Amino acid sequence: MELQIDRVIIASLEQATVHVRCLRGPVRRGARFDHLRGSVQALDLTLTQVLVYGHRVAALDTGVTAWVTLRGEGVQRLMPGTLDSGWQVVQGTNPPS
Fold it and tell me: Are 79 and 5 a contacting pair, CB within 8 Å?
């Protein structure tokens, strides 16, 4: 699964609210993200909440944008995207069903 990062609001050392577009999903609550595409630095982030148009949902489908909450180690490395810099993409796996 992959989420493309658009905007980042760092709430604390271990939590961020992030505006994303789902590139490859579905991405479910509890998903774990372990790296940024093209980077060797490890992350340890868990998706704890998904808000689509202000409504909490259990999963984010491919192509949909949402605000998500990510908790864990590495939130400080998340950066907002721009046309000049490009967009970061976090990659990981869904929790077992």
Answer: yes
